[in-house]
Write a structure and sequence with these properties.
- The complex is a heterodimer of chains A (268) and B (280).
- Chain A is mostly helical and 268 residues long.
- Chain A has 2 domains: 60 residues; 206 residues, Orthogonal Bundle (MetI-like fold).
- Chain A is built from 12 helices and no strands.
- Chain B is mainly α.
- Chain B has a single domain, classed as MetI-like fold.
- Helix content of chain B is 74%, strand content 1%.
- Chain B contains 12 helices and 2 strands.
- Chain B has a two-stranded antiparallel sheet.
- In chain B, a hairpin with a 2-residue loop joins strand 1 and strand 2.
- The chains are: A mainly alpha (268), B mainly alpha (280).
- Chains A and B meet through helix 1, helix 3, helix 4, helix 6 and helix 8 of A and helix 1, helix 4, helix 5, helix 6 and helix 7 of B.
């Protein structure tokens, strides 16, 4: 191995460590509980007495888990809304040449130039009137506004990649347009749609501003953690931060194969 | 049913949704910002500008954006170029590098708080190196430089991944023959990078910069978790006026400012990094 190659590999490893070590450290703080968080100087290994008791302490931090449940609820709803609204629009963009298609596409792209979550500010009043304020459903609606443009653009590119001839063959063999879509196009697009859905979940799960503005007692995990930042003990904060990170890492792993094609195409 | 209506039927739900949850709030925010006691006025902006934290919030926000975005672009470019030369395990390296893409700014702030706090891991390392003799605070009001650096580091850690993913997607679209042709004509690797790769990557760079800059202007949870109220930014002030002061007008005025700078940044990027029609 040449010196150049050695330097190169060191660089790769350092950049991997730069990503992973901070996650490892907050995990230490999360599972170590009060004792580890208050200890000084810090140890870089898990405490030797890392037992079921400390892990149970971690799992017992009540506010974190109940709010995590609200987060899951909002994120699942956001995922469902983004797909139900976004996939038909994507199909329309991919398969039909219609007046206004370009305008619609531009409009969807335009949302990107705006801080969409900040637009939750005036929504509070309307949400109170409709009974959506302080509910996971209300939060999920706002989050769908964030995730929907992405879902539209990605599903449009997914359908574009599926040859029109396949669909036409289905029609020849007696499928209705809906039947052809359900039996031929949808199965082929499904992995991509699943990846888009996962992305919508992550967008909602991670969003802080709108979730904080639209909730009081039924706070999502991010909103809860933000509201207790100044008063809760550090080990609760680190535990909350760690719980926030776990699903993100898993989901990025699940969509890793599609990440690049998704972003590459969605940004054309 | 007339087939001409099908596409409109398909886009109608999403269009209706975006109207209700994007356009209406957009107009409402602007109306809220420019109204006080039911009449049109600039009173909210006057109150906003008169607030002690306003200047700090503007300066801090621009400081972060101007420092962080170019660093992220350079780092992500370097990482994307390195990836082209990774032989084994490219997938796993890519996965690890893109993990922060899924991490919220609040979680990233808490991660770096755990490292940089008084009794944190950084100070432990400094203690072992003999630089420090005891816990020391880096994130307080009295240490503005280290506080700013901490936020920059946390932002670099969290949000470089999104730039990287867009750039890697862009690099994959560049035909290999272009680079090979440059090699045939005797280009050095640096010439090949600046004369072939960079120009062809321009649309991806533009997208990444737009997305990243708009998101950087929106940043607030990372700042609140690391610096508390010691480091006001535009969105944290909007949040404060809405949530703690319950003054929706001033909060909306801040939102209008954030919208204005986001839109301006987008237009500047669209113009500065435009691809001439002849090259499309």
């Amino acid at each position: 191995m040449t010196l150049r190659r050695a330097v190169f590999i060191t660089g790769i490893v350092v950049l991997c460590a730069w990503t992973l070590v901070p996650i490892y450290l907050i995990a230490l703080g999360a599972v170590g509980g009060r004792t580890v968080v208050n200890s000084w100087p810090k140890l870089f290994l898990p405490p030797a007495d890392l037992s079921l008791a400390t892990i149970r302490d971690f799992l017992d931090i009540a506010g974190v888990w109940s709010s995590a449940l609200y987060s899951v609820e909002a994120a699942v709803l956001c995922m469902a809304f983004s797909i139900l609204l976004g996939v038909p629009a994507g199909y329309a963009l991919a398969r039909f040449a219609f007046t206004g298609a370009t305008a619609y596409r531009l409009l969807v792209l335009l949302t990107r130039a705006f801080p969409v979550a900040i637009l939750a500010l005036p929504l509070t009043v309307g949400f109170i009137r409709l009974g959506l304020y302080d509910t996971p459903l209300g939060v999920s609606l706002m989050h769908t506004a964030l995730a929907l443009p992405f879902a539209v653009l990605v599903s449009a590119s997914l359908f574009q990649a599926i040859p029109r001839e396949l669909e036409e063959a289905a029609w020849v063999f007696g499928c209705s347009p809906v039947g052809g879509f359900l039996r031929v196009v949808l199965p082929l697009a499904l992995p991509g749609i699943a990846a888009t859905a996962i992305f919508a979940f992550v967008i909602s799960w991670n969003e802080v501003f709108a979730a904080s503005v639209l909730t009081v007692r039924h706070k999502t995990l991010t909103a809860y953690l933000l509201s207790v930042l100044s008063e809760s003990p550090p080990h609760v904060q680190f535990a909350g931060g760690f719980v926030l990170i776990i699903p993100s890492v898993l989901f990025i792993f699940l969509v890793r194969k599609r990440l690049f094609s998704m972003w590459g195409i969605a940004n054309r | 049913m007339n087939a001409r209506f099908i596409p409109y039927l398909l886009i109608a739900p999403s269009l209706g949704f975006l109207t209700v949850l994007f356009f209406v709030p957009l107009v409402q925010t602007i109306a809220l910002a420019f109204q006080a006691d039911g009449i049109w006025s600039a009173a909210n902006f006057a109150r906003m500008a008169g607030d002690l934290d306003f200047t700090d919030a503007v300066v801090n926000t621009f400081e972060i954006v101007i420092i962080v975005v170019p660093l992220q672009l350079l780092l992500a470019l370097a990482m994307a170029m390195m990836l082209q030369h990774v032989r084994g395990g490219r997938d796993i390296v890519l996965w690890i590098w893109s993990i922060p893409l899924g991490i919220s700014d609040l979680a990233a702030g808490l991660v770096w708080l755990a490292i940089l706090t008084d009794k944190g891991y950084l100070n432990t390392i400094l203690l072992h190196l003999g630089v420090l003799s005891g816990p020391r605070s880096w994130l307080s009001y009295e240490t503005p430089v280290t506080l700013l650096s901490a936020i920059v580091v946390a932002e670099l850690w969290r949000a470089t991944a999104i730039v990287l993913v867009i750039l890697v997607a862009g690099v994959q679209l560049i035909p290999k023959e272009y680079g090979e042709a440059a090699d045939v004509f005797g280009a050095t690797p640096w010439q090949r990078f600046t004369r072939v790769t960079l120009p062809l990557l321009k649309p991806s760079i533009q997208t990444a910069l737009i997305l990243r800059t708009v998101l950087a202007f929106e940043m607030f949870a990372i700042v609140l978790s690391i610096g508390g109220r010691n480091f006001p930014v535009l969105v944290s002030e909007a949040f404060n006026w809405q949530y703690n002061q319950q003054d929706f007008g001033v909060a909306a005025a801040y939102a209008v400012i954030v919208m204005g700078v986001s839109l301006a940044a987008t237009l500047i990027y669209l113009w500065a990094l435009r691809t001439p029609a002849a090259q499309r």
